[in-house]
Design goal:
Ubiquitin-like (UB roll), 3 domains, five-stranded mixed beta sheet, 12 strands, 30% helix
């Protein structure tokens, strides 16, 4: 038996249990207070990244990540419950984001294109290291999407999501559901390569760059101001829309609409 004055008890709720480094009944862990560590450091030493934690509560009040547990006390660690709104402040995130923007690491890189297809500002490059992702997230107020728990534990990552799903389509559905994002989407409004918003362009200004069939059958065009890539409603765009349709995101929202109307 251990003395109650040298330990605190942490109770991890629901989804946070999947991150625990060792199995404990009901997510309840007696933690030895051998050093003066913050609750954030303690939580992350046990597995969960701080980005997955929505609320920390002791017997008296809600506390923030800097709180140092007292011997004998119990703290309840709560996960986020969708839909999560990073534009609203909380005790653990007192400085909310001013807009919803993402940065994606290589582990879920293919999902970046799908998010861009829907019009979401999603920064990604396969060469970026963790430090570059963290710096970008901090400088531009972006949400980090990753399967790398170590990346999400970095202190300068303030908003992030550990992506559970395996395929890009399922990951897209997961992100949309978690952040409560739905139609109308700004479909195909961004460059899939550069992530910047496309500009409408007059056909006559780019006609010299078009293939004969494109010149003949298409009349509405957009262009990326960065890479100068041209977009139009051709077979490539149709394939992208079919892929989004096949992912099930549109049927998800249609089903939700039907349920809300009943």
């Amino acid at each position: 038996m251990h003395g109650s004055l040298s330990w605190c008890t942490l109770v991890f709720r629901a989804a946070l249990n999947e991150f625990l480094a060792f199995d404990k009944s009901n997510g309840c862990i007696d933690y030895p207070l051998k050093r003066r560590a913050s609750i954030k450091d303690i939580i992350e030493s046990l597995g969960p990244p701080h980005t997955e934690v929505a609320r920390i509560q002791n017997e008296r009040e809600e506390v923030d990540f800097s709180y140092r547990p007292c011997p004998g006390e119990v703290l309840w660690i709560e996960p986020h419950v969708p839909p999560v709104d990073p534009l609203q402040g909380s005790r653990l995130s007192p400085e909310p984001l001013d807009s919803l923007r993402f940065v994606v690491d290589v582990n879920v890189g293919k999902t970046a294109m799908l998010l861009r297809c829907l019009g979401f500002d999603t920064a990604y490059h396969w060469t970026w290291r963790d430090r570059e992702i963290v710096d970008l997230a901090q400088a531009e107020g972006r949400i980090v999407l990753s399967k790398d728990i170590g990346l999400l534990k970095r202190k300068n990552v303030h908003f992030g999501r550990f992506v559970r799903a395996a395929t890009p389509e399922a990951q897209l559905r997961e992100v949309l559901s978690f952040y409560g994002l739905g139609p109308p989407f700004a479909l195909l409004s961004r460059c899939l390569r550069c992530n910047v918003l496309l500009n409408r362009v007059d056909k006559q200004d780019i006609v010299h760059r078009l293939e004969p069939k494109t010149k003949k059958y298409f009349h509405s065009f957009s262009m990326c101001p960065e890479c100068r890539r041209i977009y139009w409603a051709g077979s490539h765009q149709t394939a992208i829309l079919k892929r989004l349709e096949a992912s099930g995101i549109f049927s998800d929202f249609q089903a939700a609409d039907r349920q809300s109307n009943n």
